[in-house]
């Protein structure tokens, strides 16, 4: 299991400490949530904070863009040091072109689906992405409740990936905790994002290690 702690739940007054916690844990990536207040009803953080995270992170940045017209910012996120760039299916008018541009810029492209978007829309783009990120909450906030239908979507997506002989990563984001993480693993999910579960835990590194075993 790939584990990607979401810095949205970090203590921004102690961001360096929280980055070191992830560096010294078994986590694989840093999940970085970028919100523009238009695509989602919340604003998170931008360039200065991401630059700082990149300076301290010793693992790849898994950047999740919750913004409209993400194609306008591909070069900017490459320069900020994004390793994986997740764009929302719902935010891209020309998704195929955007995916190609992300790859040409030297990043790993990933496509993200909101809870209402069926996985079947990925039939003709899945071979071009390294990862699909399934939102298991409506994007915009940490600490929400896991939407159970995501498990059925994950199983259908896993079947599509196997039918095509691909090795696409399936990541899930939102409401991951002690109960839902094993359910996600069982449904064929291979990467877990977790914000409040990790940073709200008494033992964040132990929580990460536990997720790695799933
Ligand atoms: C929500 C973000 C998530 C968020 C998850 O829009 O994309 O990455 O941090 O938070 P939890 O794990 O608390 O649901
Ligand atoms: Zn996210």
Describe the structure.
The chain has 214 residues and is an alpha/beta fold. The chain is built from eight helices and eight strands, in the order E-H-E-H-E-H-E-H-E-E-H-E-H-E-H-H. It has helices at residues 15-23, 47-56, 74-80, 95-104, 149-163, 180-186, 196-199, 204-212; strands spanning 2-5, 30-35, 61-66, 84-88, 108-113, 131-135, 169-173, 191-194. It has an eight-stranded parallel β-sheet. It is globular, with a radius of gyration of 16 Å. The termini are close together. The model has no long low-confidence stretch (mean pLDDT 98). Bound molecules: D-xylitol-5-phosphate (DX5) and zinc ion. D-xylitol-5-phosphate (DX5) is lined by residues 6, 8-9, 31, 33, 64, 137, 139-144, 173-176, 193-197.
Short key terms for the protein model shown above:
binds zinc ion; alpha/beta; 8 helices; binds D-xylitol-5-phosphate; 8-stranded parallel β-sheet
Helical fraction:
25-40%
Oligomer: single chain
Alpha-carbon distance between the two ends = 6 Å
Number of strands: 8
| Regions with little confidence, pLDDT below 50 for 5+ residues | none
The largest sheet has its strands arranged as 1-8-7-6-5-4-3-2
* Cofactors, ions and other ligands in the entry: D-xylitol-5-phosphate, zinc ion
Question: SSE order, as H and E?
Answer: EHEHEHEHEEHEHEHH
Compute the gyration radius: what is it? 16 Å
Number of helices, where a helix is a run of at least 4 consecutive DSSP H or I residues = 8
Major sheet details = 8 strands, parallel
Q: What general outline do the C-alpha atoms trace?
A: globular
Look at the structure and give the mean pLDDT.
Answer: 98
Strand residue content = 15-25%
Structural class: alpha/beta
């Amino acid at each position: 299991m790939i584990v990607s702690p979401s810095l949205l739940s970090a203590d921004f007054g102690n961001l360096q400490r929280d980055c070191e916690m992830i560096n010294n844990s078994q986590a694989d990536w840093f999940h970085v949530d970028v919100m523009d207040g238009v695509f989602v009803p919340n604003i998170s953080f931008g360039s200065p904070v991401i630059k700082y995270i990149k300076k301290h992170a010793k693992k790849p940045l898994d950047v999740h863009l919750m913004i409209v017209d993400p194609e306008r910012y591909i070069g900017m996120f490459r320069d900020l040091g994004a390793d994986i760039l997740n764009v929302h299916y719902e935010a891209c008018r020309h998704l195929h072109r955007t995916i190609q541009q992300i790859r040409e810029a030297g990043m790993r492209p990933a496509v993200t689906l909101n809870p209402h978007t069926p996985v079947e829309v990925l039939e003709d783009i899945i071979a071009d992405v390294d990862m699909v990120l399934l939102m298991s909450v409506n994007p915009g906030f940490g600490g929400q409740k896991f939407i159970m239908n995501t498990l059925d979507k994950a199983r259908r997506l896993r079947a599509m990936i196997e039918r095509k002989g691909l090795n696409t990563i399936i990541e899930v984001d939102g409401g991951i905790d002690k109960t839902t993480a094993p359910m996600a693993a069982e449904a064929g999910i291979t990467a877990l994002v977790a914000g409040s579960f990790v940073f709200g835990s008494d033992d964040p590194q132990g929580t990460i290690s536990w997720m790695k075993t799933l």
